[in-house]
Amino acid sequence: MTKQLLLAATALVAILPVTATAQTAKKATMPTKATPAMRADNPFAKPSTLPFEAPPFDRIKDTDYQPALIAGMAQQRAEIARIANNPAAPTFDNTIAALEKSGRLLERASNAFGTVTGANTNDTLQATESALAPKFAAHSDAINLDPKLFARVSTLYDRRATLGLDPEQAMVLKLTYENMVRAGAKLSAPDKIQLSKLNAQLSTLETDFQQKLLAGTKAGALVVDDKAKLAGMSDAEIAAAANAAKERGLAGKYVLPLQNTTQQPELAVLKDRATRQALFDASWTRSEKGDANDTRADIAQIALLRAQKAKLLGFPTWADYVLQNQMAKTPGTALGFMQQLGRPVAIEQQREAAELTQLIKQQGGDFAVTPADWDFYSEQLRKAKYDLNQDELKPYFEINKVLNDGVFYAANQLYGLTFKRRTDLPVWQPDVMTYDVIDADGSPLGIMYFDYWKRDNKSGGAWMSNLVNQSKLLGTKPVIYNVANFTKPAAGQPALITFDDVTTMFHEFGHALHGLFANQTYPSVSGTNTARDFVEFPSQFNEHWALDPKVLPHYAVNYKTGEVIPQSLIDKIKRASTFNVGYSFGETLSAAELDMSWHSLTAADGKQDVDAFENKALAATGLDTKDVPPRYRTSYFRHIWANGYSAGYYAYIWTKMLDENAYDWFENHGGLTRENGQRFREMILSKGHTEDYAPMFRAFAGADPSPAPLLKSLGLNADGSRIAPGGAPRSSDGTVAPDMHVAETTVVK
Length: 749
Fold this sequence. Notes:
The chain is mainly alpha-helical. It is built from 26 helices and seven strands. The longest helix has 32 residues, at 331-362.
């Protein structure tokens, strides 16, 4: 996942920082004193003198952010005023390029602020975030709703064919105009006032949601008194649970912190059914306890206000508004695509649930599988079917080996990159690692930060974002970070991770490559500044290299013996790759449809009862949501309520389609080679948003995307039958299954 931080440098929407903030159990309070003016010695007052302008985290105090952010907004407002009031006739340089150059102070401060509020927050940072949320919204509105500024942009847009612009300039002008219109630039004065009120309310509510969620997630961790109840967990995992309890002042007990998803990793190994149920319930109800951290009231209001905002801007629903500038274009196209996948996935879910219930009965159990049981028994079934034990795999995945000899090695083989560890750059937390990224020709490409270990003051999940954005206009190169939430081993224990964690590392580094290869003049279209249903394409595509026969043996080495992972284990991993897809893919699909349901409400539908609406929406999916709950429940669905993925969670599935189509191209053209990697870099990864997405993809792949390779990757035919191992996709009657294509309306012309 990418984190869209406050984009202060452009007339595109000045976006509120959407990095989910970490919370403490104590709710942050608004500052009571007036914010002091930014001092001359504030670390943000001048560009950093560190390599690539990396932030000087060793000099930044928590109290430095608020004055710098406020000063940055004031500075950009002054810059915007000079552009809007320029007596000279509008030109691309004095209007659009000038907008792209504006907001340097604000960008420096907001990029760093978004990093620490997401990955290492505290009460002071949360208070700052709460205090500034409405100010950011007002700042965005002041730019986007400025009539003089819009008049200049509109004049240029109307004359765009006569300006002699290059393709990137033409795209920047187009996007600037369209985004100002989408932000309300054409509204009447009274409607602009109403829009600003809605934006302020939404920014406050979204920040409040974020803070409640992490507080609730922290408070919702399962506390276990008896070690015997943790039977099935490894000694190292139990030690980590004991250490987590000690850190919370609960010495002698064990704490299982919650990750951001519905399912929790311990559910796959815990033998005690009551403990499994308690852990699942803790996850499922974390934000629905009727206490100060209950998010449902905020969610109901956010959904209503978004519907009202969409209506004000001339759209039937928030989903219609959001998808207008996405690759899919309309909610109908996105839903139609998901529904093509729904039937075969639902059939697979039914098969999987029946298999697990049968296994339970074979073991003497007198109950059907439940969500709390699913991972425990599916892991047993995995072992029985494929003789694949996750604990057997872990010794081969030591995190530093995975990073250096897996993630980095694949990037070297595909793109010629090399990486050099550095220890001189200040970081926001001692566990963070930094690397120089060196291009194939030996030139410096950027800097990477990695923050992998779970902390109570870190938002859940994994993400990528920029500390410094690439821009030829500004003379800046990318400084990028990856964040994850892997369980840190106890002192003296090896840093072993699961294969799912390995995949996460490759995924987030795929985002990083998209940012590192940015080669744009203008920051607003640089790197990962793309549509949601395109930005996850490079990251999901990069996951494929984790299992590549050239890459996997290079990093999958037993940390004790030095033995390379045996081919027998590799074969087991590959054979098991489509195991449990009804669950794993189905939980994502139901979450995506739940998101679209929430954002297909009209203003006339009014405020919803959150639980009742959720139940109705999940029932409408046709999926087995009783046994396979959504990956994120409404009440802790941070992606859509605070992280910029509203009406956009389908993007993970849509871009999975793009990724599988692209990987098909690689497989048909020699697989992992420098030549193929360079082609992908030049035609996809280095483009940013300088071209329309559909033609860009078509130019690379030679055709529009089809859902067929996605279903094939799941081991399913369109009719729900399973694909025989090694066989071509076939229908239930034995004939070759028909190809499936996305409707013509899904591509940008």
